[in-house]
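re: ur question from yesterday

yeah so i grabbed the chain u mentioned. its 334 aa long if i counted rite. heres the sequnce exactly as i have it in my notes:
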Amino acid sequence: MEFLTDEKLVIVGAAGMIGSNMAQTAAMLGLTPNICLYDVYEPGLAGVTEEMRHCGFEGVNFTYTTNVKEAFKDAKYIISSGGAPRKEGMTREDLLKGNAGVAEQLGKDIKAYCPDVKHVVIIFNPADITGLVTLIWSGLKPSQVSTLAALDSIRLQSELAKHFGVAQSDVTGCRTYGGHGEAMAVFASTARVQGTPLLDLIGTPKLTQEQWAEIKHKTVQGGSNIIKLRGRSSFQSPAYNAVKMIQAAMGGDKFTLPAGCYVCNDKLGFKNVMMAMPTTIDKTGVHFTEPTGTKEEIDGLQKSYEHLCKMRDEIVELGIIPAVDKWKEMNPNL
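ran it thru and got these structure tokens back, copy pasting raw so excuse formatting
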């Protein structure tokens, strides 16, 4: 098998369902023969590693360890799902304090053991905050850290495809921006159904205003619905999309669905947050452009940004990160 790179990929939280699916997906896509699985739960970690070996992936060398220094040594790419999962009745924001603390330690470990890492993808919720905390403590450049947000856009695509009875690939341009949570901004102006602009369909018998409102609700609650249906939080879809993000950072096909990235832009009025934007991930990292939409959509994005600022300020008050004006002392790249 040909691989994109021979550089080391570390999967954090590999004993969990997302982590084990990421390991399998990374091997199936031929990213690298050098995959290290890291978790603090040794029996589960050993079990996942055995499962991967039993798949018989040609040329892939799976290693595992519960020692973070050993895991991160020489790491060039990291995907982390190493936080607590969401349970039924919980929002992503409910995980704030505990998982922000996990992200703080992750950032410190990156700075201590693999400061030359090229790209880090953060999955564990609330991803906008955990990604921001990781970035601040790691000392990395903003282009080197991205968070999983594409799942929301894909869930919008799925709901529209089901409503119209078309193939999911016939629905294009689905985008959600801002927070990866209850306050996400769902955009209609960029989407098309079999080539027809979605805005031309909303408010017609084909898609009434009430039906559109329900689709937006289902998009926002997509993760909660999986928990109700399966009895546990999503694992296959976040694993696949996270691996596609790191694949792009390794030099594979560009990842053009919205990703969470660090934004500090006076012109846009969004400062010192990690949020979903129109992004591209490639070998140079994650880069964003200005979001465009209707006034209502931009207003929704502004509200989502304000919600993220409140969560950011909460972890400042908790002492997990310092006040914004102190960030540059910890990370000169900010």
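noticed a couple things. The first strand starts at residue 8 and ends at 12. also The chain has a mean pLDDT of 94.
anyway ttyl
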